[in-house]
Amino acid sequence: MVWTTPKSWLVGELVTAANLNLHVRDNTNFLYNIPRYRAFRTTALSLTNATTIGLDCDNERYDIGGLFAPTDNSFTTNVTGLWTMMCGYNLVSGAFGGVQSCLISTGATTIAEIMWLRNSANTEEQSLSVTGHKVLSASTVVDNTGWQNSGSAKNTTTTVDYIDCWHAGSWGGA
Amino acid sequence: MMVWTTPRTWSTGDIPTSGWMNTDIRDNQNFLYNVPRHRAYHSGYIIWVNFTSTNINTTRQIYDTDNMWNTGSSHAADINTAGLYACGAGWAHGQYDGEGVREVQAIRYDGALQDVVFRQKYIVGTHAALETQHMRVNGSGERTFTTSEFIIFTAYHDAGNDMADLPTVDASPGHWSTWRGV
User: Fold this and answer.
1) CB contacts < 8 A (A, B)
2) Range of the domain at A163
């Protein structure tokens, strides 16, 4: 479904079925069923030490607008407007420190990033996610990446209800 | 900025007028299509004072469709249209060996500080030798607001010394919000 700038109605104008369908029905459906997707990964992703790794996802929960095509760490906007984007991953348990980060970007331009220094004394799984918000043009490619420097490669988990490795986005206005 | 008008209830025999079609259909659709929102960031270096809650002041707006951002209260979003808002904020600092808490949060303000909308808070350990990575703090949440309220965005840390932000153009330090419904 696409958005059509709503027409300005004139005094005395005959209301036609075509105009009602295009300007009322289709626009209402567009606002009710906005472009959106959520992708996730079904296997472990290895985050190489001190290397930017794409959060490649191989499956999707939903995708309105054909935004995502597996396997990929990106999605492509299909309409211009305000987009909310988020991504995250969950690392396996173990005693290791180092930095973990999660980045949403369009090429070299950062949209949102979270980065923290992991406590090496604790062994629990650690999960991080970030949310960004930006007006983007149609056909913009948005990348989702992770990074860690614990000293060796670390895997994401594979059992934590679709948040082992994931990214998502939705259109929210012009 | 377009405003929302409660859609009329149509009656049998109504002959649609151009006024109804424009106000109840065209203008309401345009409101839903172009919702109130803002995004702003600070183009320079903010000093994050140790052990002190610091406003995330901003110097530039990237967009602002509802007069939500102004330089006089640049650490806040002014709510001019009531409803549900998603909001977020972030800040950063360079390499630093100070262990301690890093925090970002948003608070509802109606003349006095009220409830916290979101808070991201965690403890950063000591950097190992040659670790030069920046720390980036980011959080988001949502809540309903009434007109004339504000969303206040603040940062906090207790790393042991004051720290300078490491700005990222368009992104950090900064904050954003968007209307999502009533």
Assistant:
1) 125
2) 34-171
